[in-house]
Amino acid sequence: MLQRVIAVIGAPAAGKTTLTMQFGRQPGQDVFRLREHVPETILAATATSAERLGWIDDVTVAVALRRYVESVIDEDSTHTVHCDNFPGSSRQVGILVSTMQQLAPKCAVHPIELVAAETTLSRRIRQRRVCHRCERDPIHDPRLPALADPAHPQRCARCNSILHPRRGDAPRLLAARMQRYRQAAEGIRAAFAGFGITVVRLESNGSPEQIADQLTALLNARSTPS
């Protein structure tokens, strides 16, 4: 039975995707990425335009989320869903919370905001790479962090292909993504507060394993009866 949804938000390079990937590999846990559940035509329109970056209309978001949650409930093998960079706006907070209230009223929603120093964000952006062969993105815009070959850092450890910077890390698009997050973050926190839910800020300057351990301890503490 679906017991909790962890909504992971944060600035670009705060560690959202790396963290959710770690948990998604564990039994009974899954990851929701909005871009994997919306039409390719909509994704294509938001991929390279700084003006429309990340913009997906509310109807599409609501339909995609509802279908995903219904499938998770029907399969009945997942107890925790990690939302990677979702919700991305105050309106999407309302969509998330209302959908869970309707479909899984006993499921707890825990929003986590990853916070890292500017130096950490800059270093991660410079270093991170993606693999176009391993990640078959529908619009050829892979986002998942690739594992580099230790002996050949510019090649993928899985398939030996050349690794590439993320398209969204190009200076103009990155600046737009940073601005979009900073403008949306306060509204996201306020929207969750309107539902009586507190956004917990989690320091994410450490290694992926350290951040995962911190989040696990936090969730365990929240689930322990007082």
List its traits.
226 residues; alpha/beta; Rossmann fold; five-stranded parallel β-sheet; two-stranded antiparallel ribbon; 7 helices
* Quaternary assembly: single chain
CATH class: Alpha Beta
**Which structural class is indicated by helix and strand composition?**
alpha/beta
The whole-number mean of residue pLDDT values reads: 92
> Could you give the distance between the termini?
23 Å
* Computed CA radius of gyration, to the nearest angstrom: 17 Å
CATH superfamily: P-loop containing nucleotide triphosphate hydrolases
- List the total number of helices: 7
Topology-level CATH name = Rossmann fold
- Output the helix-strand order: EHEHHEHEHEEHEH
Estimate percent helicity.
Answer: 40-55%
> How many strands in all?
7
- Give the neighbour order of strands across the main sheet: 2-3-1-4-7
Largest sheet: 5 strands, parallel
Tally of structural domains: 1
- Low-pLDDT parts are none
| % residues in beta strands | 15-25%
What topology does this entry show?
Blueprint: E1 4-10, H1 16-24, E2 29-32, H2 40-47, H3 58-75, E3 80-84, H4 90-103, E4 108-115, H5 118-127, E5 148-149, E6 152-156, H6 171-194, E7 200-203, H7 208-223
Helix pairs in contact: 1-7, 3-4, 4-6
